[in-house]
């Protein structure tokens, strides 16, 4: 997709061969209505008990369940960004232009959140360097929001960043209009920093130090 002009369909941009795919609206699709502060590694807040029936674990980004969540994610991003309906063709074009195939070992990972086995959300992890990862593709389906799913996904991706990738720092960016999302990240222990990428849609950048448990 090209940079947004008066009539283009772009709502995001790649950064150096997929290093800055859009997560400027990630929390529109996850945390704007989900304010539970379930903490992960490195947070000053203790993790809350996980509700029965909920889980979050790695799942192939190419799998049908992952593809369905990513399609819903981009559908909502386009609708919210442009304040208009989208089409299957527009979403398909966006998925093709902004692939998520780097969210797989060794360059990253993709996680799916479930309730009683049913997919209700997702989040991606992208390796930036030997000790730094980026959180992206955060999404919770509308019918599961407000139930702590975003916090569960954040906790899971932080834990995986530490144990599987040896990360000591996790970063993300977001837009200025996503006030609730920024509040969620702050509750999760993320601190606002200067820009670390060239994502022209981003207005705020966050990072959090990670520590091995125990």
Fold and architecture overview:
The protein has four helices and seven strands. It is 26% helix and 23% strand. α1 packs across α2. With 214 residues, the protein is an alpha+beta fold. The chain has one domain (26-209): Aminopeptidase. The model is unreliable at 1-25 and 27-47 (pLDDT under 50).
In short:
With 214 residues, the chain is of the alpha+beta class. The chain has helices at 64-82, 88-97, 149-165, 179-187; strands at residues 54-58, 108-115, 118-129, 132-140, 169-174, 191-193, 204-209. The chain has 4 helices and 7 strands.
State the main characteristics.
single chain; 214 residues; alpha+beta; Aminopeptidase
Task: Write the SSE topology.
Elements: E1 54-58, H1 64-82, H2 88-97, E2 108-115, E3 118-129, E4 132-140, H3 149-165, E5 169-174, H4 179-187, E6 191-193, E7 204-209
Parallel strand pairs: 4-5
Antiparallel strand pairs: 1-2, 2-3, 3-4, 5-7, 6-7
- Spatial separation of the terminal alpha carbons: 45 Å
**Cα shape:** globular
- Report the CATH C-level class: Alpha Beta
Order of adjacent strands in the largest pleated sheet: 1-2-3-4-5-7-6
- Binned, the helix content reads 25-40%
Q: Biggest sheet, in brief?
A: 7 strands, mixed
Overall structural domain count: 1
The total strand number stands at: 7
* The CATH topology: Aminopeptidase
Q: State the fourth-level CATH superfamily.
A: Gcn5-related N-acetyltransferase (GNAT)
- Provide the low-confidence segments as ranges: 1-25, 27-47
Mean pLDDT level: 81
Report the total helices: 4
Strand composition percent: 15-25%
Structural class: alpha+beta
């Amino acid at each position: 997709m090209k940079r947004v002009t008066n009539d283009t369909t772009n709502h995001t941009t790649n950064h150096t061969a997929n290093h800055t795919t859009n997560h400027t609206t990630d929390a529109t699709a996850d945390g704007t209505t989900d304010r539970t502060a379930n903490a992960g590694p490195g947070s000053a807040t203790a993790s809350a008990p996980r509700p029965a029936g909920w889980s979050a674990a790695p799942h192939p980004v190419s799998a049908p369940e992952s593809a369905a969540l990513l399609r819903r994610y981009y559908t909502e991003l386009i609708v919210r960004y442009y304040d208009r309906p989208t089409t299957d063709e527009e979403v398909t074009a966006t998925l093709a232009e902004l692939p998520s195939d780097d969210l797989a070992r060794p360059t990253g990972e993709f996680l799916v959140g479930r309730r009683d086995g049913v997919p209700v959300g997702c989040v991606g992890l992208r390796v930036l360097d030997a000790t730094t990862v980026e959180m992206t593709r955060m999404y919770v389906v509308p019918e599961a929001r407000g139930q702590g799913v975003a916090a569960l996904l954040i906790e899971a991706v932080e834990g995986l960043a530490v144990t599987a990738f040896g990360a000591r720092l996790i970063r993300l960016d977001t837009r200025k209009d996503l006030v609730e999302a920024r509040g969620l990240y702050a509750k999760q222990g993320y601190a606002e920093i200067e820009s670390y990428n060239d994502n022209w849609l981003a207005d705020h950048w966050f990072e959090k130090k990670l520590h091995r448990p125990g």
